[in-house]
Amino acid sequence: MSTDTTQILTAIWRQVLAVAAVSPDDDFFDLGGDSFRATQLAVLVGERLGVAASPSLAFDRPSLAGQVRWVEAARR
């Protein structure tokens, strides 16, 4: 996994979920995520990582590591 992608996505999670720390195995919904925050996540992933994401990203891949892998595949 790309360190840059992980760092950017971690920062997005921290912002959207208002949490101090996030680890790769954390679950978006266990940290307080909901459908509104999933929409925010999708918008910020598009803005900061340059890939078109939908709110289903959080539902289909709730772990940070899973989302990082998806973003990196989408960027290729």
Automatic annotation (TrEMBL):
The keyword Phosphoprotein applies. GO terms for biological process: amino acid activation for nonribosomal peptide biosynthetic process; secondary metabolite biosynthetic process. One of its GO terms (molecular function) is phosphopantetheine binding. The keyword Nucleotide-binding does not apply. GO terms for cellular component: cytoplasm. Residues 1-75 form the Carrier domain. It holds the Pfam family PP-binding. Keywords: Phosphopantetheine, Phosphoprotein. PROSITE patterns: CARRIER. Transmembrane segments: none annotated. This is Carrier domain-containing protein.
